[in-house]
Amino acid sequence: MKIAIIILNWNGQKLLAKFLPSVVNFSSQKADIYIADNSSTDGSIAYVQEFFPAIKIVENATNGGYAKGYNDALQMIEADIYCLLNSDVEVTENWLDPILKVFKADEKTAIIQPKLLDFKDKTKFEYAGAGGGFLDLYGYPFCRGRIFNHLETDQGQFNDEADIFWASGACLFIRSKIYHQLEGFDEDYFAHQEEIDLCWRTQNIGYKVKYVGTAAVYHVGGATLQETNPQKTYLNFRNSLLNVVKNVPKKWLLFVVFSRLLLDGVAGVKFMIELRPIHTWAILKAHLSFYKNFYKFLKKRKKLSKKPAYNLYTSIVWQHFALKRKVFNDLK
After folding, report:
1. Which CATH number fits domain 3-219: 3.30.390.30, 3.90.550.10, 3.10.150.10, 3.40.50.150?
2. C-alpha to C-alpha distances, 129 to 13, 214, 245, nearest whole angstrom
3. Fewer CB within 10 Å of terminal CB in the chain, N or C?
4. Range list of H helices, 28-168
5. How far apart are alpha carbons 225 and 147 in whole angstroms?
6. Cα–Cα distance measured from residue 150 to residue 127, given in angstroms and rounded to the nearest whole number
7. What is the location of CATH 3.90.550.10 in the chain?
8. Is the pTM higher than 0.90?
9. Digit-coded pLDDT (tens) for 88-114
C-alpha cells in the first residue's frame, strides 16, 4: 500500500524548519513526502531543496487556499493513500502503522484521522480535530475532546478506534480513489470546513470515516489564521451554512437553515456584548456570501447521494451553553 504525505505550504518556511524533521525522521521509510506549495514568496521552496533534498515538490501556480491547493497538487501525485498534513504538525514514532493497519483491514474505510493533541500543551486535545469530529442537528461541528473552546485533558479516554462524522484537515488520510471519485475538495470553500463536506460526501457513497487513537500527532493550530482573526470567523460561519445547504436531507433543510441563521444572530450579539464587533461584522459578511451562493449550492445537491448521511447529535449549543455539558461523553 503506497502512501504519500502531502504538506500544503504557503509562506511557511519557519514552520517547515520546525516540523519537517519529525515527518522525515518518522515517515520517510514508509511514505513519499511532498511539499505542495501555494505560490510562496518567502523562500520556502529554496529552503526545502537545500535542507531536505529527498522531499518532492509540487508547485501550484496560485494560492488557491486549502481546497484548490490540494486539488491541484494531488492531480500530480500517485499513491494508494494520501495523507494531507498541515505544516504545523509534529508527528510521532510509528504513527503510520495503526492507520495503515485499519485501511488494510477494512476496504470500506475511506478516511482516517489520528489523535490530535495540542503542540503547546501536549496533555490537551487540540481544537481542530481532537478525538474525531461530529456535527449537531444544525451543522455545528465539535469533537470528542473539544466542545466549542473547551478542551479536554488526554487521559487515554479516546485511545480507541471509532466511527466519526468528520476528520480534521490538519491530518487527514484518504484513499486516493475516493478522493478523485468525489472530485476532491469543493473549491468554493477556499479554506475551513471543506474537510467536513468531503467526509459527508464520502459517507453518502457508502464509505466510512474513522478515528484511530493509537496514532497521535501534535498540532499547533491557527498558524495560518489565528482564532482571533475575523477572516477565520467569516469562513467558518459561511462554510458551515454552505455545508448545511449542500448536504442536509431535503425534509430538514428549511428548518435547519432558518434555525442556523437565528443561532448565528445570537452569536453575533454575543460578540457585540464581548466588545468584538469585528466578528459580528464577519458573521454578517458570511451570511451575505451565503445568500449569494445559496442557489449554486442547491444545484450541487443534485450530484449527491439520494440518502445523505445525517446521524447527528441534538443541539450542541443548547447542551454546552444551557446544560453546561463540556465533556464529550456527557453529550446526548
Report:
1. 3.90.550.10
2. 24, 15, 23
3. C
4. 44-51, 65-74, 96-105
5. 20
6. 8
7. 3-219
8. yes
9. 999 999 999 999 999 999 999 999 999
